[in-house]
Amino acid sequence: MPYLIELLLFLAPFAAYGLWRRANPSTEPSTILLVLGAVGAVLMLGGAIWYGLSRSMEHSRDYVPAQLDGERAQPGPAEPRR
Question: How far is the C-alpha of 43 from the C-alpha of 47, rounded, in Å?
């Protein structure tokens, strides 16, 4: 069931664009709308790359999973590779 919801959320923008094209077959998207969409896509990709690079561990370290300490989860440290 969650996969169906994810698929529907993925397809929703395409369906909205298709409905808009069907309702307005002779109109084209304005240039400013296309530019804003391209700028948004570039910002999204840049932000995703920046976040991934800023949160990554060094290559010489190994990930240690979180440990349960009573009722609380303690984050695991990144340990040096052996």
Answer: 6
- CA separation for the pair 5, 16 (Å, rounded): 16
Q: What is the pTM of this model?
A: 0.56
Pairing of strands 79-80, 61-62: antiparallel
Report d(CA 22, CA 13) in Å as an integer: 14
Q: Which of 66, 63, 56, 65 is nearest to 78 (CA)?
A: 63
Single-letter amino acid, residue 10: F
Helices (H) and strands (E) in the chain, counts: 2, 4
Q: What angle do CA 5, 11, 14 make, to 5 degrees?
A: 160
30-61 confidence digits (pLDDT tens): 899 999 999 999 999 999 999 988 877 777 77
User: Phi/psi of residue 5, each to 5°?
Assistant: -65, -45
What does the alpha-carbon distance between residue 79 and residue 82 come to, in Å, rounded to a whole number?
9
